[in-house]
Amino acid sequence: MEQMLSAFQSDLSCISLEIQTLQEQSITMNIKLKNRQSVRSELSQLVDELVVPNSMISIILETPVTEQDFVEQLHELNNKINYVKEQSFKETQACVDVQDVLDRLKIKAVTKIREFILQKIYSFRKPMTNYQIPQNALLKYRFFFQFLLANERQVAKEIRDEYVDTMSKIYFSYFKSYTSRLMKVQYEEVAEKDDLMGVEDTAKKGFFSKPSLKNRNTIFTLGNRGNVITSAELEAPILVPHAAQKSDVRYPFESLFRSQHHALLDNSCREYLFICDFFMVTGNSAQDLFNAIMGKTLTMFLKHMDTYVSDCYDSIAIFLCIHIILRFKAIMAKRNIPAVDKYWDTLLEILWPRFEHILELNIQSIRTTDPQKLGCLDTRPHYITRRYAEFSSAIVSINETFPNEKTNALLGQLQVEVENFVLRVAAEFSSRKEQLIFLINNYDMMLGVLMERAADDSKEVESFQQLLTARTQEFIEEILSPPFGGMIAFVKESEALVEKGQLDRLKTDEGGSNTVGTAGRIGRVYGL
After folding, report:
1. Residue 31 domain-assigned?
2. Which part of the chain is the Vps52 coiled-coil domain (predicted)?
3. What is each CA distance from 385 to 391, 407, 431, 456, 461, in whole angstroms?
4. Which residues have CB under 8 Å from 401's CB, separation 6+?
5. With a threshold of 0.85, does the pTM exceed it?
6. How many domains is the chain partitioned into structurally?
């Protein structure tokens, strides 16, 4: 029995050793399997990437670049080129065998892509071409430039330089011609250096003065000119000069400015988005590329504006142009396109000083106006105050949308000079009654004009309301003074005493000869 158990124990030990050996063999086989699978996966990818199928060679060599098959195979070729570059760092021997084939295919693809893109760019130059169509066509093949940039940077630079040169000339030619044609439909008669607020009408009417034209632009009145900064007109289609000439339609300068710069805004937005998308640039690189394309055109615009503004005396036109720019800046900011931000700022640096200069000329003209040289005076509203009222209401109504403290300060100076002017003219009347009538008529007219356009709580409206009230009160007293002088004096003294809380003084001796005695008698009558 003992011998049998020993034999059984020996058999169990052998079985345990065999199981252990089988486990070790299983683990070893599993590791070998995983290694083979891993090698197979890598070898499979290597083989797939390094093998250049005949179909790829045929399509790259023979198929037009606009075909979808060519675009797909170009992506595959790009992947293979990148893969071989990665493997070359690992010194994979198989890469050497396929490198020559890939290089030949790359050269052929680059040649075909270069020719296609250059032909598209050259098509921009054809007369009457809508360049947006070939631009949109290029965007469909934006991967072509990406392929060139990754594999042949010199060709990519050539294409980019050619595009910049072509579009720069196209934009410059178009905007130079458009600006020139626009200026031909401006009002023939514009404000001149003598068209100032304080200049007498007779001074501007000489023997050789021009007759009033049908399309003469307004100088001090806003009229419908303010519509140019409303949403409806601000982004309206641009003006067509030859159509305007054909129908003999004329426009104020701000309308021409709006049309010119709306065209610039649209083209700039479209161009900036295109170069960011097609040439794959952002930030400063995108701005530099945009400047290379549009820089010549923007410089031409600035020179044109500088020349025009230096001899312009139409302050309303310049102020409207300033507000057009502020709105166009807001539109581009909303679109998140900073392409022409610097241009807008430079333009404002040209317009603001000129606007301030013209306002200062008007202020000076009113300050130096001699009432004795204005001819026969009457008590009706003066034409100079009407000019001021129209002009001030125009500037205030425009300025309310984008308030500017510098403008408010200049308007404040202008208002002070006008108030002084009105007082100087009033002093020319011999009687106080006529002086007051003149003041009331002028204050009332200015207040009425201002209230049509400016807000009721504006400083100008409030100031003239106070002046009108004071002069009206004084006129009433002037009229009532002869028959009711004593009564008026009594009312004033009584009001003063009531305000001081001295009601007892109203009950003084009724026999007194002064007005306070009279006040006592009337006070008792009324129960005071």
Report:
1. no
2. 1-148
3. 10, 19, 21, 20, 14
4. 229, 323
5. no
6. 3
CB 69 within 8 A of CB 59: yes
Q: Is residue 92 located within the same domain as residue 197?
A: no
Please give the backbone phi and psi of residue 186, each rounded to the nearest 5 degrees, phi first.
-80, 155
Query: Which domain range does residue 504 map to?
Result: 482-525
The Cα–Cα gap between 294 and 392 comes to 38
Listed residues 349, 365, 381: the one ending a domain: 365
Pair (163, 140) in one structural domain = no
Tell me whether residue 170 is exposed, middle or buried, using C-beta atoms within 10 angstroms of its C-beta: 0 to 12, 13 to 18, 19 or more. Answer: middle
User: Coil, helix or strand for 456?
Assistant: coil
Whether residues 125 and 92 fall in one domain: yes
Tokens for 402?
């984008």
Look at residues 520, 475, 469 and name the one whose alpha carbon lies nearest to residue 494: 520
Answer whether 495's CB lies under 8 Å from 470's CB: no
**DSSP conformation class of 209:** P
Please report, as a single letter, which amino acid is at residue 165. Answer: D
CB 290 within 8 A of CB 272: yes
**Any idea which residue has 């675009």 for tokens?**
71
Which tokens belong to 224? Answer: 């419908």
Side-chain half-sphere exposure of 161, counting CA atoms within 13 A:
6
> Which tokens in the block code for residue 516?
């306070």
Q: 251 φ, ψ to 5°?
A: -130, 150
Tens digit of pLDDT per residue, the chain (528 long)?
777 777 777 777 788 777 888 888 888 887 877 776 666 566 566 566 677 889 999 999 999 999 999 999 999 999 988 888 877 655 566 567 778 888 999 999 999 999 999 999 998 888 766 878 888 989 999 999 999 999 999 999 999 999 999 999 999 999 999 999 999 999 888 888 888 988 876 555 444 444 443 333 468 888 899 999 999 999 999 999 999 989 889 999 999 999 999 999 999 999 999 999 999 999 999 999 999 999 999 999 999 999 999 999 999 999 999 999 999 999 999 999 999 999 999 999 999 999 999 999 999 999 998 888 877 788 899 999 999 999 998 998 898 878 888 888 888 999 999 999 999 999 988 899 999 999 999 999 998 888 887 666 677 788 888 988 988 888 887 787 666 666 666 666 777 777 776 666 665 644 444 544 444 444 443 444
